[in-house]
Design goal:
alpha+beta, Serine Threonine Protein Phosphatase 5, Tetratricopeptide repeat, 2 domains, 11 helices, 27% strand, flat
Length: 348
């Protein structure tokens, strides 16, 4: 990964401070979020994606929520059926685009004309796209790769049961909705002319309720249409989990060198102004007092990490370690070296 991209990735995913605690000791603590590669992270040269949908067939339709609900009620709410809703399929694409963009890892384009033709039944995966078409789409929207939903379908399974009381009359009821989803995504790289990822997410999400009032039970359950949309969002979350970096909370500290400036430095940290913090601490790194010099070097290591330069952070932490030993420095060095190894995985 080149230096610019490395800084951008770490800046977005590492410098998000969620809490800041003042303490009476000589250092202050903070909590950050760091990035870890996901299982299907795209090559580092893939920064932008065009998202299109090739799963829609003539079997799909935008179901009316009331008509769809009545369809299942007319069958006693005890019915299994594949339900191909075009809005749900499009929701997965749109939600995935938002999630990928918000991860800070990808720029995303979803074209207005995003539905590609297919000539296979909905449950089959269509043939590979022509590379000229892939290149044309990526060129038109100035993106590095094309993400295609190749297959999408839901199967809805509903159940309604009543239980009789001692006198034989219905006394209790339960209802459930199980929504099984199956989504296949391929990511085409026009430069390599390779399908660099093929992702499959399939699972079932469920809703259940029971009670003495049938009306209240169905008030608590989503409509079938709503369950389809919620399922679509869950499918997008599953896909994003594979493609986007995972965020993990970690603790960091910095030393208070000048008590009169403590609040100023704390403000810089809270506002992610790490270059200003770096410039502030650098003057103390020339102090003849080893205790001050070592703390300043430690702080410069932290600022360097937050600015995305792990190598420089390790260099400053090593200087701090040899200027004057502190257990905090030894611990931080171990953390930085582990972080360095994790970031190397983004290069693959």
């Amino acid at each position: 990964m080149n230096s610019l991209n490395h800084n951008r990735l770490v800046l977005v995913l590492v410098t998000l401070i969620t809490t800041f605690n003042s303490c009476t000791s000589s250092y202050k603590s903070l909590v950050i979020e760091t990035a870890k590669p996901s299982s299907y992270m795209l090559p580092e040269d893939i920064h932008s994606l065009t998202l299109v949908n090739r799963s829609i067939t003539s079997d799909f339709q935008n179901f009316n929520k009331d008509s769809l609900q009545q369809f299942f009620f007319s069958r006693g709410f005890h019915y299994d059926s594949v339900v191909l809703d075009s809005v749900a399929a499009d929701t997965t694409l749109k939600a995935l685009g938002e999630l990928l963009f918000e991860s800070g890892r990808y720029d995303v384009v979803i074209p207005e004309e995003r539905f590609l033709e297919r000539h296979k039944e909905f449950y089959l995966i269509p043939e590979k796209l022509n590379w000229d078409e892939v290149s044309a789409l990526c060129s038109e929207f100035n993106t590095d790769a094309l993400l295609v939903i190749e297959r999408y379908f839901n199967k809805i399974m509903t159940d309604y049961k009543t239980f009789n009381g001692p006198n034989g009359d219905p006394a209790y009821a339960s209802a459930s909705i199980d929504s099984k989803y199956d989504v296949v995504v391929k990511i085409y790289d026009p430069t390599r002319q390779e399908i660099i990822r093929q992702l499959v997410v399939d699972d079932t999400i469920s809703w259940r309720d029971g009670g003495y009032s049938t009306e209240k039970i169905f008030d608590q359950l989503p409509l079938i249409k709503e369950s389809l949309i919620q399922t679509a969002v869950q499918a997008a979350l599953d896909l994003d989990e594979k493609l986007s970096p995972n965020w993990v909370k970690e603790n960091r500290i910095f030393f208070v060198i000048n008590n009169t400036d403590a609040s100023q430095v704390a403000l810089l940290a809270n506002e992610n102004k790490w270059q200003e913090a770096y410039d502030y601490w650098i003057k103390y790194a020339e102090s003849p007092k080893k205790s001050i010099k070592s703390k300043a070097e430690f702080n410069l290591a932290l600022a360097s990490e937050m600015l995305g330069d792990i190598d420089l952070a390790i260099e400053w932490a090593n200087k701090s370690y040899y200027t004057k030993y502190m257990q905090q420095t030894q611990n931080y060095l171990l953390t930085l070296k582990k972080r360095q190894e994790i970031l190397k995985q983004f290069d693959h």
